[in-house]
## 1
Amino acid sequence: MTPTFEDARLEPIRQKVESGVALNFEDGLTLYRSPDLLGVGWMANLVRERLHGDATYFNVNRHINPTDVCVASCRLCAFGKRAKDPKAYTMSLDQVWEVAGKGWSEAVTEFHIVGGLHPELTLDWYCQMLRGLKERFPQVHLKAFTMVEIGYLAQRAKLSARDVLQQLRDAGMDSLPGGGAEVFSERVRRIICDHKITGEQWLEVARTAHQLGLHSNCTMLYGHIETEEDRVDHLLELRALQAETNGFVTFIPLAFHPEHTALQHIPKTTGFADIREIAVSRLMLDNIPHIKAYWIMMTPRIAQIAQRFGADDLDGTVVEEKIYHDAGATTSQNLRRGELLRLIREAGREPVERDTLYRPVERAENTFTVLV
Ligand code: SF4
């Protein structure tokens, strides 16, 4: 049954959504400015159910952050540290492999590997890390390195991003996680992350990865100094690249966590804003298959509700995650399988355990099979 929206400005958007017409810049602004969150959410849920029915996906993964040493000093960041900072750490290769092996009985299907821009770790070191992981855990998908890390490795090795991606792929990298996109606006990047590659370069690395057959995710960091126009532009840039490469699998809106950053005067995002971000991204990114409510950042409570506002994925049972917890995230670092299932079922959705590429995983005790 079609409800009557409180905000009449949503009616023409509803007609487009119902007939599968892509939304434009003005539509995006209206979605961000409408107080009728239920109306926006109703449309996002329509798209979500059209694509995925009642399925909500999750996976069993582990995060590995090999180093927090970083040459950049992004104002948005509470994770990166200077090499001489007594609290900085860099794992040896053996430590990376050891961390990967902890909790192995959970039959992890994915390692999510990101870290700082280390001034001394070489491309060869990262290739060895990947090879070592593949030797030890051949069935585990290695989702590794943001476009920013790829850009930095290319700069240091004096190679093209294509060469770096090829070497990493040959060493075992299976896909890329999609972080570091922040907001593509130059004005915003100059203030929050001026040491990072530009938005254009981020998109170019993603384009190259997709051309090489590597899938990736994509993200947007919201809730800092960006405007609604910046957000709509960002989403439209991602949609345009997807129309060209079809390489993005999942979009993940990331709420800015201000604690312990140089921008800690900025208030945290609200539940209303987080839910709206999920819904708007589902509506604007009609050609990206999945929208993830990353419970680590949103809290399990908000992520659970997001399943009725456009999200079809809750991420994984993450045993150890450092980046957002350095920035003050107060969520548990480890949501077990049973708890995820409860969050999904209580929202009237059907849990589907997946691997990184959304193939269903069937489990029996501690063994698992990816259904291809
Ligand atoms: S956001 Fe990334 S690149 Fe920037 S300082 Fe933090 S770890 Fe380094």
Note: Residues 70, 72-74, 77, 79-80, 116-117, 148, 193, 196 surround iron/sulfur cluster (CB under 6 Å).
## 2
Amino acid sequence: MLWRTRFAPAPTGYLHLGHVVNAIHVWGIARAFGGEVLLRIEDHDRTRCRDDYEDALLDDLDWLGFVPDVGRTDSFRASRHGHPHGHPQRQSDNEARYAAALASLGARDLTYVCTCTRRDIARQAPHAPGEEPRYPGTCREARHAETESLARRVCMDDGMELFDDRRLGPMRQSPADQCGDVLVRDRHGQWTYQFAVVVDDIAHDIDVVIRGEDLLASTGRQLRLAAMLGRERPLHWWHHPLLVHPDGSKLSKANRDTSIRERRAAGVCAAALLGEAAFLSGLLPAARDLSIDELPALFR
Ligand SMILES: [Zn+2]
């Protein structure tokens, strides 16, 4: 089986050790099982993304030795200077794709205009700090005119989404109970992460999503959205551990928050950073230098 997966950072800051953990899993699993890696820059939120962060993350990937099979780093750089080749995938280029996906759902009466503010939702659906707010469907029956807001929600009807996580085993999630109707575009016209990734994963023929287990709760709604958008190809999931010491103790702030850029400037070599990230996500029993070529063996 040829598994295509993706590494999809957002250029809203510098890469840090958490990104390296994800990249180790993405490239290691792809290389171990004969898959390929697509690089996608997730810059759908134009208010937070910056070109210099994109430059920095491309540079850091090159330095660490992560080479995408689809969307080479030099193709991203070249496209910025008006020399498109190699099809770099940036979400900011995909406006028409998201609009068409939304229109296809709208034509089947699966979307509606939402005029609620964040504060409205907090009032309608009180939730504990750290708990996910569930949108109670206030605007579903209201039939607001298209002109009242740019915000659109997709109906999440009752029912379980079942999936088999490659690491965690069988899972069941109910999007209607977890989050309610999913926001796909906000009132400023920004596409949401949930919607953009699902539409892109279909367009990019992604077979397996490899990501941190902090995102596990959003899998069911993404599967539901994908089915609503007509995805037929099976989609597999592999949620990996986040950064933590193998004994469960917390990471120091320096390990957790320091950017790859700062570590490079301080003279750390790429193999040492890879080894540190592999150790801190439980892939190695102790920190040591680790080369890119050793990654597949961690997953076989
Ligand atoms: Zn609403």
Note: The chain is about 35% helix and 15% strand.
